[in-house]
Write a structure and sequence with these properties.
The protein contains seven helices and no strands. It is mainly α and 149 residues long. It has a single domain, classed as Cytochrome c/b562 (Four Helix Bundle (Hemerythrin (Met), subunit A)), CATH 1.20.120. Helix 3 runs antiparallel to helix 4 and helix 4 packs antiparallel against helix 6. The chain is elongated and about 45 Å long.
């Protein structure tokens, strides 16, 4: 019995079955969870940038890696028909200006990958990559996220 459990665990890990479970969820839910991860990573770095917590190179790199991983597949979570439901804040502009939305996501991914590659070793280096990332977030949210009234 233990051998079967170990084999199943190895199979799940090797095949990426766990992400497939997430993919089975509604895209609105998946993208909300992805944005929560980005928000958490951004928040951790913001505390460092603001001096509310000490700079931690490993934590900064982990946060940047999380953002880059989310940026890699975030656009896939906006298929046609996912513009409503699940308290989505996705603006109709995502679907009426898909090229613009995709361009913003590509820029975000590019800057996230560059930030990971830079592997900030001190606070000034983190600030240098943090600014462009948060500017990407703001620019995208301005056009492609519904405002809460």
């Amino acid at each position: 019995m233990k051998l079967r459990i170990l084999f199943a665990a190895a199979l799940i890990g090797a095949t990426g079955f766990a992400p497939a479970i997430a993919a089975a969820a509604e895209p609105q839910e998946v993208r909300q969870e992805m944005m929560k991860k980005v928000g958490g990573a951004t928040g951790a770095m913001a505390k460092m940038v603001k001096g509310e917590s000490d700079f931690d190179a490993a934590a900064a790199l982990a946060a940047l890696t999380t953002i880059a991983e989310m940026a890699a597949t975030y656009g896939e979570q906006f298929p046609e028909g996912s513009d409503t439901g699940f308290e989505t804040e996705a603006a109709p502009a995502i679907w009426t200006d898909r090229a613009g939305f995709d361009a913003k996501l590509a820029k975000f991914k590019q800057d996230a990958d560059a930030a990971v590659a830079a592997a900030p070793a001190d606070l000034d280096a983190l600030k240098a990559v943090f600014g462009p990332l948060t500017q990407n977030c703001g620019a995208c949210h301005e056009t492609y996220r519904l405002k809460n009234s």
